[in-house]
Each structure stands twice: as C-alpha cells, then as structure tokens.
C-alpha cells in the first residue's frame, strides 16, 4: 500500500475516537503482502480456518519445498499430493493448491487483476475450487491493496468488533457494517487494527 494512501487512511480513521486510540497504541500498520498472484492465493488457502501461528508454520514448510523461493505454478504442479500432505496441508487444501497451480499455469496467467473492480476480481476467483469470499477479501486487501474491504465473515474481525465495542457476544453482520461506516473508505486499514486487538499479532 502506498505511503500516501496509508497516511490518508490514518488521518481519516483518527477522526473516530475508538480507532484513534488503536492508532496511538499500535502505530502505523504494515501492509507488506504477497504481490505474486499465485503465491498470495496459495497462502490464503493454507491459512483458511487455521490460527495465524499454525498457518505460518505450514506455509513456511510449503515454501521450504522450493528452497525457500516463491514457488511458480509449474513447480507446484510437479509436487504430488502426498508430499503436500506430509507438511501438514490437508487433503482438501492440497487438491485446491494443485488446482490453483493448474489455473495459473494456463488461463489465469494472462489476467491483469489490477485492472479489475473488486466485484470482477471476486467473480473470477470464485470460479476456482477452494476459493471463497474470505480468500477473495484477503487477496483484495493484501495483494491488490484495495482500501475499503471489510470481511464480515472473518472471525478475527468479528472478535475485534466485539472487543472494541465492549460486546458480550459476537456481532451480527448488520451490526458490523453499521459500526464500520465511519471508517469508509479505509476499512482495510481499520481491519489491521481489529486483528491486532484480538491477538496483538497481525494474522497475515
């Protein structure tokens, strides 16, 4: 994310008292994501439904299969499912990653996601087995750096809202959207702070 964009986001978010306190506590966010499309999506598949620590461990093992270099689709295609399973990737996720590699080794390699709208990116990616809205949202946030993504289905975001607004139970989707309105059009940056107050450690 460009520094100018981030500075504008922090200035805007600081106008809301609760978010201002989070910015003062945690400082400026780090949005150094994975800029390679295939690796960003394979990483997000590995991270699905896992804690940040467990996911990072498995992802690092995955990268280790390729001498700690970012793997290319053509390289992943050569890795069999048992090998992926041996490093802690589930059978289902192993199949998803293999399918993703096939996609990018063929038609997916020609798509310029930067030129697509958020909705168009989602429409394209959802066609790939194993990619749902959460993965699309992570791709939009940490690879394309779209500024106003708010993944209401993410448990960390739900917990962050619960903590921030002193709730007893997890919030509804409608409540989350309502409370996030003052953060528009920089809800992506607001999410970074919501994740931080849950574990004090960004999940991505």
Chain-wise SSE layout:
Layout: H1 3-13, H2 17-26, H3 37-47, H4 52-64, H5 73-77, H6 81-86, H7 91-105, H8 118-125, H9 133-142, H10 155-164, H11 173-180, H12 187-199
Give a concise summary:
With 204 residues, the protein is mainly alpha-helical.
Give me the Rg, rounded.
Answer: 18 Å
Uncertain residue segments: none
Oligomer: single chain
Structural class by helix and strand composition: mainly alpha
At the fourth level of CATH, the homologous superfamily of the largest domain is Hypothetical protein, domain 2
Topology-level CATH name of the largest domain: Endonuclease III, domain 1
Fraction in beta strands: under 5%
Sheet of most strands: none
Query: Number of helix segments?
Result: 12
* Structure summary, number of beta strands: 0
Distance from N terminus to C terminus (CA atoms, Å) equals 15 Å
Going by CATH, the architecture of the largest domain would be Orthogonal Bundle
| Shape annotation | globular
In the CATH hierarchy, what is the class of the largest domain? Mainly Alpha
The overall number of domains is 2
The H/E string reads HHHHHHHHHHHH
- What is the typical, i.e. mean, pLDDT? 90
Helical content class: 55-70%
InterPro entries: Alkylbase_DNA_Glycosylase/TA, DNA_glycosylase, HhH-GPD_domain
GO molecular function, one term: DNA-3-methyladenine glycosylase activity
GO cellular component, one term: nucleus
Organism: marine metagenome
Describe the structure.
- With 204 residues, the chain is mainly α.
- It folds into 2 domains: 3-31 and 149-199, Endonuclease Iii, domain 2 (Orthogonal Bundle), CATH 1.10.1670.40; 37-142, Endonuclease III, domain 1 (Orthogonal Bundle), CATH 1.10.340.
- The protein contains 12 helices and no strands.
- It has helices at 3-13, 17-26, 37-47, 52-64, 73-77, 81-86, 91-105, 118-125, 133-142, 155-164, 173-180, 187-199.
- The chain is globular.
- The mean pLDDT is 90.
- GO terms for molecular function: alkylated DNA binding; DNA-3-methyladenine glycosylase activity; DNA-7-methylguanine glycosylase activity.
- This is HhH-GPD domain-containing protein.
- Residues 46-199 form the HhH-GPD domain.
- Belongs to the alkylbase DNA glycosidase AlkA family.
